[in-house]
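Q: I'm writing up a methods section and want to include an example of the input and output format. Could you take the sequence below and give the corresponding predicted structure tokens, formatted cleanly so I can copy it straight into the document?
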Amino acid sequence: MPETPSPIALAFALLLLIGMPALAALDARRGANLAEAAKHRRLLYVSVGASLVVLGLLTLGVAAWQDVTPADLRWSVDEPAAAALWGLAVAAIGLALAWLITAAARRAGLRETAAVTLLMPRSPAQKRGFLVLSGIASVCEEYAYRGFGLWAMTAWTGNEWLAAALVSVSFGLGHGYQRLAGIVRATALGMVLAATVIWTGSLFPAIVGHFWINAAIGLGGWRYLHAGFDPSDIDDNPGHDNGDDEERR
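A: Here is the clean output for your methods example:
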């Protein structure tokens, strides 16, 4: 069982787990102009990536300040090859689970927000940017949520699986802009990733799995995963790439 976190470390973990969903809810309430954002996808990817880097650096800074070691946050890997295989298995399970939840939501009549399709990359340049963003997200989000957040909540509650559930719900609510189906989907994926960290004792398989889930969806899987939701909002014509046609080379 981890040592009880310092008040500052615990406060930062609670700020992360409560504050991030709150910010997502505020953004959704203000009503982000997705159509406008989709015209500048690469700039959006840069902005989101920079925000994630700041999150990762803040987490790293608090961990260093409060003497939370890399081992506490499972920032290590004993067998890289085995961990990579774990990561690929996690990605396959995560993608299957995402498809099942999305299909169930479709059958239940829940409408999917256009955000999940409007912001997906279309051109080769956008896809390269999305892959970079996926790498940043997988490292920074896993370090913050399944690393620091899971460690702090485990020490606070005394129950690793309860901590995993709390972190996963927070992660899901942080995707509130994707409506109910997206929240459930992200919560379930978060739980798979948290379970992987618990079982393997390392963040590395979760990072690998997170990256490949994002990459597979972003590089075309979104057309199958979200087919049938809000079809009038989905840009299926690559000839109308929202002002980024010059990026196709």
